[in-house]
User: Which sequence fits this backbone?
């Protein structure tokens, strides 16, 4: 019995980048991932060393500047919006565990993977763990982002956890289910204009050996436990391109496409992902208020100035992330359901569906928030390259480069279009998702959640522009 | 497009790319730390033309606060490079008796280099010269300069204060309000003009029978007002205000201009934290809201040098004693081990300028 073809959403326009011979050869070149990871690993080692041995002064310590400003800017402003999960392919944190598991750096070996190969518990096969690990980090972020030792401890914990999990569980369990960063990168990679997909699903269905999942002499089985034939969204594809290398049918491609098509894969929407969207939006608001806002009391509370203050901050922060923001949005979806007469769909499913419209605005908010401090603080990168530990080194003669904010007067002019662009993208996403449930009374149904999105945007504008 | 269907043997782990990869990973994971530590603790000290000592400043109230290390031992004649940094806020650094008085800050995350050679054995105290918190005055340390041939000299304070204020019997912890006090800050210049009109001989000669260091302005005023004396006859026609101008003139003669400038430099660097830049006793260290110390530490507020009665009652020796020993029951620290004899008198002369106007 033949199965129905998987409908690629919005499949009206795609350009197959892997048709470009140079890119095709590059992506199939086995040492590519290793080479890029080696570079990031070198930075990671230096970040760990500086965090523990260097000056405790954040803006003079390589770890703080390169992890929380340079890396963060690279990921949230460039890589995620343009190339989706590409950072995950070259992230140094899972690399040692993966190399150990494979007992190889570049080429696959015939021997079994060096791991107990346990299966990840079924009830944890979602991103709830990533939601909570992100929240746990976010609660201490004012400390982690400013104290080198705290940054070092976090990085060390991540890499040890990744190695430990790779020895017990199959493949990249840490990345797929635990990494707090991977959770939001996956969510926002849905907006990217890049995707890895199979060219023809029928070829996959007819092909029995499935090297893309089990591996072959040409490459490893998907480290992310994803069968490429089922890929319809970027969320859990780490762009390692192993499947591109292993596919004997030459049926895998990297495509350029219109951004955000993954939001419209209706069947794969889930509450854990919806909550990720709330958490990210709420955290962007909270971070903007704490780190960029003028409220000393809030900064003190987040900074652990007193235990009581921090406990109150933590309670409010968690309530805002998990109850208040989702709760308010839930009310708007109830109203939308009523106004749009969409009683046939359950309130829960409707809430989950509409939550995906928050993702573009969330990404835009993070970009706008990051522009606010990255452009101001990125010039610290030169002195810390010259003197990464604050030991008085002066490599390349850059130590005394003054702190020079880049175009501080122009930052609001960048933040406003980014936020308004995000709002537009979100309302478009909302409109299309609502359209899945029928075209009738579409405008009425869209009004309450669109109002919520607009209000959130104005909240950010107020925080950034004052 | 290449054809992946062609069978291809699994590469061996000992294949060349894997071996190169292993070397590169080892370079990253082991090589980078070894290179960093080797450079910092092996190469740099060897390449440095002199011994290098790192000194880290922390707020005195913090854990491991103060200078780390707080005692540095060097050899007489040894060329030493101090690398100073701060772990928290901006600090300053001076070793007055070694002539090290940099105005550069010791900034967090930056390294300040100070090079010196101590030719004389003994103990040299160093201090933070930027008011960093209420316990700022506790941020001190010692450089011990060793002479292997003279162990006793090594333990000695270098150029200690030479005036023995204790012999004078002044109770430096008691209040000394002047019996006489001006109602307005007197003006030394006007005093000089008056004396040029009245004077028969240099003004200080009328006080030659007294130790000028023990004389308070109040006593000097009393002598000017005493009837039946030569001085009293000269100044008898003057009003109280004019006589106070003469007292201010007398004090202005005690300090040469360069000494006064030195006093101003030291006062503004070391005293303003509590006494304030205008001498009003209103520096940040004296502010009760900012004080981290117990109430008893600040049982007496910082002296207000614009208080004319207090200035009138205080002899220079009283100030000298307080400077050398520090104020009992207050946060006034001792300066005897930091300042030279000349520095002590220079600060005292400058402190008078808060009450007595000068040119």
Assistant:
């Amino acid at each position: 019995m033949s199965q129905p073809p998987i409908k690629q959403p919005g499949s009206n326009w795609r350009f197959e980048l892997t048709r470009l011979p140079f890119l095709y050869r590059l992506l199939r070149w086995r040492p590519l991932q290793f080479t890029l990871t080696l570079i990031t690993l070198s930075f990671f080692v230096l970040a760990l060393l500086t965090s523990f041995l260097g000056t405790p002064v954040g803006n003079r310590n390589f770890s703080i500047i390169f992890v929380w400003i340079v890396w963060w800017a690279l990921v949230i402003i460039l890589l995620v919006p343009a190339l989706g999960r590409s950072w995950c392919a070259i992230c140094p944190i899972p690399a040692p565990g993966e190399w150990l598991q494979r007992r190889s750096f570049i080429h696959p070996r015939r021997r079994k993977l060096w791991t107990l190969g346990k299966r990840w518990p079924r009830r944890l096969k979602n991103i709830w763990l990533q939601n909570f690990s992100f929240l746990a980090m976010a609660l201490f972020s004012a400390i982690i982002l400013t104290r080198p030792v705290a940054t070092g401890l976090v990085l060390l914990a991540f890499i040890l956890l990744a190695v430990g999990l790779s020895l017990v569980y199959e493949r990249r369990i840490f990345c797929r289910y635990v990494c707090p960063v991977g959770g939001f990168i996956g969510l926002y990679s849905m907006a990217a204009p890049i995707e890895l997909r199979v060219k023809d699903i029928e070829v996959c269905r007819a092909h029995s050996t499935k090297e893309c999942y089990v591996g072959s002499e040409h490459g490893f089985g998907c480290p992310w436990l994803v069968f490429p034939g089922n890929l319809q969204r970027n969320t859990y594809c780490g762009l390692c391109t192993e499947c591109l290398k292993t596919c004997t049918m030459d049926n895998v491609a990297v495509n350029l496409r219109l951004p955000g098509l993954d939001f419209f894969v209706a069947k794969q929407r889930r509450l854990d992902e919806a909550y990720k969207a709330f958490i990210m939006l709420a955290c962007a608001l909270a971070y903007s208020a704490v780190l960029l806002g003028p409220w000393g009391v809030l900064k003190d509370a987040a900074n652990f100035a007193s235990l009581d203050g921090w406990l109150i901050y933590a309670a409010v922060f968690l309530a805002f992330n998990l109850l208040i923001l989702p709760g308010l949005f839930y009310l708007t979806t109830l109203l939308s359901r009523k106004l749009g007469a969409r009683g046939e769909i359950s309130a829960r499913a409707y809430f989950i569906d509409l939550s995906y419209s928050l993702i573009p605005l969330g990404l835009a908010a993070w970009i706008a928030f990051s522009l606010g401090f990255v452009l101001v603080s990125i010039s610290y990168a030169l002195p810390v390259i010259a003197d990464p530990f604050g030991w008085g080194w002066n490599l390349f003669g850059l130590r005394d480069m003054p702190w020079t904010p880049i175009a501080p007067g122009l930052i609001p002019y960048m933040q406003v279009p980014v936020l308004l662009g995000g709002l537009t993208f979100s309302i478009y996403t909302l409109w299309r998702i609502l359209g899945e449930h029928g075209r009738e009374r579409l405008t009425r149904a869209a009004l309450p959640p669109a109002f919520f999105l607009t209000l959130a945007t104005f909240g950010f504008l107020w925080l950034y522009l004052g | 497009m290449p054809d992946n269907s062609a069978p291809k043997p699994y590469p061996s782990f000992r294949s060349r790319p894997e071996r190169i990869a292993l070397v590169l990973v080892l370079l990253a994971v082991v090589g980078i730390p070894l290179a960093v530590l080797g450079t910092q603790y092996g190469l740099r000290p060897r390449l440095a033309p002199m011994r290098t000592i790192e000194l880290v400043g922390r707020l005195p109230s913090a854990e491991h606060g103060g200078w780390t290390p707080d005692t540095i031992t060097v050899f007489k004649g040894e060329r030493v490079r101090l690398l100073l940094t701060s772990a928290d806020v901006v600090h300053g650094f001076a070793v007055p008796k070694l002539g090290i008085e940099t105005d550069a800050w010791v900034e967090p995350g930056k390294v300040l280099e100070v090079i010196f050679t101590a030719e004389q054995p003994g103990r040299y105290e160093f201090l933070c010269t930027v008011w960093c918190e209420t316990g700022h005055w506790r941020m001190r340390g010692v450089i011990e300069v060793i002479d292997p041939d003279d162990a006793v000299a090594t333990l000695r304070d270098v150029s200690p204060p030479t005036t023995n204020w204790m012999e004078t019997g002044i109770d430096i912890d008691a209040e000394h309000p002047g019996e006489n006090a001006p109602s307005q800050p007197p003006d030394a210049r006007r005093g000089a003009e008056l004396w040029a009109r009245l004077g028969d001989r240099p003004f200080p000669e009328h006080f030659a029978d007294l130790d000028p260091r023990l004389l308070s302005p109040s006593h000097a005023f009393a002598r000017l007002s005493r009837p039946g004396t030569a001085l009293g006859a000269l100044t008898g026609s003057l009003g109280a205000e004019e006589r106070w101008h003469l007292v201010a003139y007398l004090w202005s003669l005690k300090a040469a201009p360069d000494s006064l400038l030195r006093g101003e430099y030291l006062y503004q660097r070391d005293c303003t934290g509590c006494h304030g830049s205008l001498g009003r006793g209103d520096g940040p260290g004296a502010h009760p809201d900012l004080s981290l110390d117990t109430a008893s530490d600040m049982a007496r507020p910082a002296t207000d040098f614009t208080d004319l009665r207090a200035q009138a009652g205080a002899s220079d020796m009283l100030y000298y004693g307080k400077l050398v020993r520090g104020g009992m029951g207050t946060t006034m620290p001792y300066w005897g081990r930091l300042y030279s004899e000349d520095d002590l008198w220079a600060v005292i002369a400058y402190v008078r300028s808060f009450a007595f106007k000068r040119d």
Remarks:
- Residues 16-47 of chain B form the longest helix (32 residues).
